[in-house]
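To illustrate the input format used throughout this study, we show a single complete record. The first block contains the structure-token representation of the backbone; no residue identities are included at this stage. The design step must infer an amino acid for every position from geometry alone.
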């Protein structure tokens, strides 16, 4: 089957703003699963259906998984306002999606899930999928950030969420596996042990086998003192059903207030898309800073926002910069001014 035949489109109406738009779907006949990994990530040959799992409204950027797109819950006025506040220029989500565009669609779905107050298990599942796409992109930091986020949500869901009780063994195992991936070996072993000693594990022999296998792997890794860089692919014979299904958010009754968007800086013009080429260490720093709000208050921030805040600060502190002829001189000026808040030489 050619790639072209692998897709078809579907007309959808946005439940937030009423805009009608077409979404790209993948034909199930064109999907070839090659292997399933220990965290239930499926590797596909050719078209990756995960890329098309999130529908994004091109007008208001409301984004949700295909199976829950129409079932929006929450205060519509608040949702509309929060989406509008967060709006920025987005890529075109129609037609073929690249991994980058797919990752963005999951980020938007996570934002919608936060605005609508969806359950932690839904946010965990979305975060885990974002981690998989980042892994595909070879973006280790983003992968780790979303893996840690998924872990956090699944642990919270395990403690609080009644809807996960039906697949406790699977969730217990998955929490163990995510701990292993981020190098928390003692926690991983504790959760694997919890999974295999759960009486209902006998009804899930595949999970039991996986838990024992990954437990052993964790022991070896702990002994070697190495941190897992990427998931060890499982053999093709270990094909599993994708058990970490996303819960239907329609069951959720709790609606949290939308996050407060504090606007401290007013800009005169609209946002303009501007592509920049940076060095790896610069991007690493932006990534590092962007994870701080999550560590402190479970709030998301992207690298672009960090860069924008930095530029805003520069605009405020030194609106007019003069007296330089190259990058090094300019950098030196910035350093001087950051240090003493004055022009160098003053
Ligand atoms: Zn919309």
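Output of the design step:
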């Amino acid at each position: 089957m050619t790639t072209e035949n692998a897709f078809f489109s579907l007309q959808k109406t946005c439940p937030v703003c009423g805009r009608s738009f077409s979404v790209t779907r993948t034909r199930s006949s064109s999907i070839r699963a090659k292997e399933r990994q220990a965290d239930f990530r499926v590797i596909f040959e050719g078209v990756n259906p995960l890329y098309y799992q999130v529908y994004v409204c091109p007008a208001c950027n409301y984004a949700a998984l295909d199976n829950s797109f129409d079932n929006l819950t929450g205060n519509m006025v608040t949702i509309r306002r929060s989406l509008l506040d967060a709006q920025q220029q987005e890529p075109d989500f129609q037609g073929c999606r690249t991994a980058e565009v797919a990752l963005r669609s999951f980020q938007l779905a996570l934002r919608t899930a936060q605005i609508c107050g969806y359950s932690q298990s839904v946010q965990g599942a979305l975060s885990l999928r974002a981690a998989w796409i980042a892994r595909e992109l070879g973006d280790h930091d983003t992968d780790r950030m979303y893996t840690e986020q998924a872990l956090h949500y699944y642990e919270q869901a395990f403690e609080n969420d009644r809807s996960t009780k039906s697949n406790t063994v699977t969730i217990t195992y998955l929490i163990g596996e995510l701990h292993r991936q981020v190098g928390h070996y003692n926690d991983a072993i504790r959760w694997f042990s919890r999974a295999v000693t759960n009486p209902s594990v006998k009804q899930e022999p595949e999970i039991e086998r996986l838990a024992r296998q990954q437990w052993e792997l964790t022991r070896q890794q702990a002994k070697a003192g190495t941190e897992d860089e990427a998931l060890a692919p499982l053999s093709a014979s270990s094909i599993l059903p994708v058990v970490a299904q996303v819960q239907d958010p329609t069951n959720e009754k709790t609606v949290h207030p939308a996050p407060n968007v504090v606007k401290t800086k007013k800009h005169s013009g609209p946002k303009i898309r501007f592509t920049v080429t940076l060095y790896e260490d610069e991007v690493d720093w932006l990534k590092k800073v962007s994870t701080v709000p999550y560590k402190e208050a479970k709030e998301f921030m992207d690298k672009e926002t960090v860069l924008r805040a930095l530029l805003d600060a520069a605009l405020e502190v030194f609106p007019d910069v003069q007296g330089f002829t190259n990058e090094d001189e300019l950098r030196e000026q910035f350093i001087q001014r950051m240090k003493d808040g004055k022009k160098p030489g003053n």
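Structural context for interpreting the output: The beta strands are 7-13, 20-26, 32-36, 42-45, 54-56, 63-65. Confidence is low (pLDDT under 50) at residues 227-263.
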